[in-house]
Structure formats: C-alpha cells, structure tokens
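EI: anyone free to look at a 243-residue chain?
SC: sure, send it
EI:
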Amino acid sequence: MNQHSRLRRALRLLLVALVGIMPTAGLLAGCGKDASPTNPQISTAPSESFEARMDEIVIPSLDVMTEISRRVDAEHPGADLREWQEAMWAELQDLKSDVAAGKTAMIGPLTNAEFFLLLAAGKYYTAMTGWASWRAQSEANTQWPGNQGNTKADAFRHAFWNELMSKYLSVGWAQAYATAHESETADGNAKRMDLNNNAVGRGIYMSNSSKSEAQLVTITKNFSYGYRNPINASYPFLVYFAY
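SC: here you go
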C-alpha cells in the first residue's frame, strides 16, 4: 500500500472515529480538547500540503508523539488545531535532523495511519491515546507479570487499552485507532489475536460503560480467555497463543 493509499485509509478511519466522540473534560491538565461537543473545530484531515511534505519528517513512536505534543501545548497555549499541527510538524523536522545526526534513535514508530489520525484529531486525542497505551501496559504488567508477548497478559493489555480509549474518547475512536495500529502488520496469529482482543475489549466496555477503571480491570481479568494456535477466526473471548 503506497503513501497516498495509507492516507486515504487513515482519513476514512478518522471519519468513522469522529462520529459520536464525547471526550471527558479535565482528564489531562493542559491537554486541550481539539474536537469535542463544546469545541467543534476539527479538521477531517491534515491538508494535502502535509502529505506532500512527508519527506521532511520522521514518524515517531506514540510515546514520543505524546511527549512532543505536550511540549508544543506548553509552548503554544491556546493554539488552534492548525497551529498545533504546524508546530508539531516543525518539531518532527527537528527530530529528523537529530535522527540523521545520530543524536536519537527511532524505536517503534507509529504506522502512517496512526500518525495521520493523531495529526488530524489534535492534542487531546494524542494525549489521551498515549496515556491509554501507557495505562494498559502498566496494568497488564501488574495483573499478568511475566511474558507479555502473545500471552494472556497481551490479550488483557489490548482489551483494556480499547476499553480506556472507548471510555475517555469514544468507541469509534478506539476502533479506528486500534485498527490503524495493526494496519502495517502482516497477517498472522499476532495480528489476528490483537484485532480480536481489541474488538472484545470494546465489547466489554459497551456492556459495562458505567463501570470505573478499577471495575473494568477486574471484569477484563476475569473474562473468558482461550488458547488458539492457529488463530483463524473471530472469537467472543480473549484469545492468546503463547504462555
């Protein structure tokens, strides 16, 4: 899939994600709320000028994207979405220079689809999506210590991650972003496992939308898990293929 096709796919996912988004105010101090019922400014896509300038930047990892967004927000308080995008772009240009000079390394970059979703949605979604990823990993380490790859811990992490994005952003955003996260992964057990567990996690949230985070942790840990190898279908339970 070429860059233009990835962008078009990302934009279709974003349009789905923006339906019904209702972010909860005050979850992250200073992160802003670029797209919300009370602040409806939202670009449905980065402008074509961004697409044409992709060779100017490197696509960072989610944690680096989140860190840069926080720095931009602190340096440009009150910036609108377009101003935030331009400031982010400048920071990513500097990051590319640092990578080229060997001052920093790029580990685990976002997929193109993830990057364009975050760039189009703004600082609130970037901050909350980054936080949800960190929170899910932290809780998985606590609840299922040990091997985190393709195990029950991994299944829990993906489900809880989707529950958090659904709870604090929207189910639409969780579906769009989690799908974008897998968009450059080759088909196989790992991808099928993650897509299945993402969907199960969103289902858990929709059946328990009034529950607290702590309650969702308990529900998810006590949910049905099943070992499958190969993984060749969608399952109503959390699936794993390693111990």
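EI: The radius of gyration is 18 Å.
SC: 👍
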